[in-house]
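Exam revision sheet. Question 4 asks you to relate a sequence to its structure. Input first:
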Amino acid sequence: MGLEIRKVQAWSGELPDRPGAAAATLERLARAGADLAFVFTRPHPTRPETSTLILAPIVGGEQTRAACAAGLAPAANVALLRVVGQDRGGLGYELMASLAVAGINLRGLAVSTVDGRFAAYLAFDNPDVAAMALQVLATLV
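Answer key, structure tokens:
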């Protein structure tokens, strides 16, 4: 199947839910040389004036310092796997079905395709569940 599957350390933090808040955070990271492959925001579940930002990767000291200065930290409550490869019909189903058969629940999922390639970020509740998912998905490679 030609899939590349690896663990990714997600970083997260809270932002004011207003225009420019995410841009300001991303600017700090860009100035530190970050080449982000995953950026996701969502409203905070209990505070309507706040959004949650999840992103990856943060690499090296300069990016780590910039992320911390922007109020981000390694996400302790989410474990990410990144799956990339050639796109084809039914691939998303195969990934999700293999996890379902193994009894592994996803916390979140983001998938996109560009020019015949796909990238999927699969979120799990903790690193142990992500490790089990990695073993299952590796059988598809």
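Marking note for examiners. Residues 127-138 form the longest helix (12 residues).
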